[in-house]
Amino acid sequence: MKVVSDGAVLACLASTGYFRVLRSLYGEVTIPSKAVDDLLGDEGWTAAQIARREGWMILRDPSDESRSKYLTSIQRAVLERGQIETFLVALEEKAELVLTESIILRGELEKHGIKAENSIGLLAQARVAGLLSEKDANKAVQRLADYRVRTGARRHYI
């Protein structure tokens, strides 16, 4: 399955201590470098660097051609830099799934028939797959809620 992620999901999962469920669930995850840049100073940045060294997180940037082909002025106005790059890479890669906390990005992806999942959904998938116990999943959700409060909800939902 082709999976592309933005930076917010990586930051959220790193805050729970269960960043590696991404590898267990999907094997390989592609992320635009601008989305990784958005993580600077965040615990997700360190986790992303480790994942890249281990070879299961792939950096890929969209082509200039896709910017002119797919990106509308409205999308440029409402999506953040890392979200724009994630959107374009997902289209180029013909991704089956995009990991994002952004409701706006989810809506844009749905217009192109691409499914999206957020960090809570990923934790639920990890629980169903037996990667997390019920106790660990509950702890992870609480850590995620605490992280969102610490960093501000706007960063993760717009």
SSE arrangement, N to C: EHHEHHEHHHEHEHHH
CATH architecture heading of the domain at 20-117: 3-Layer(aba) Sandwich
Secondary structural class? mainly alpha
CATH homolog superfamily of the domain at 20-117: 5'-nuclease
Tell me about this structure.
There is one protein chain. This protein has 158 residues and is mainly α. The chain has a domain of 98 residues: 5'-nuclease (Rossmann fold, 3-Layer(aba) Sandwich), CATH 3.40.50.1010. The chain is built from eleven helices and five strands. The strands form two sheets. The chain has a three-stranded parallel beta sheet with strand order 1-4-5. The chain has a two-stranded parallel sheet with strand order 2-3. The C terminus is likely disordered.
Helices, strands, pairings?
Blueprint: E1 3-5, H1 7-16, H2 21-26, E2 29-31, H3 33-37, H4 43-54, E3 57-59, H5 64-70, H6 73-78, H7 81-93, E4 97-99, H8 103-111, E5 115-117, H9 119-128, H10 134-151, H11 154-157
Parallel strand pairs: 1-4, 2-3, 4-5
Short description:
With 158 residues, the protein is mainly α. The chain is 63% helix and 9% strand.
Keywords:
single chain, mainly alpha, Rossmann fold, three-stranded parallel beta sheet, two-stranded parallel ribbon, 5 strands, 9% strand
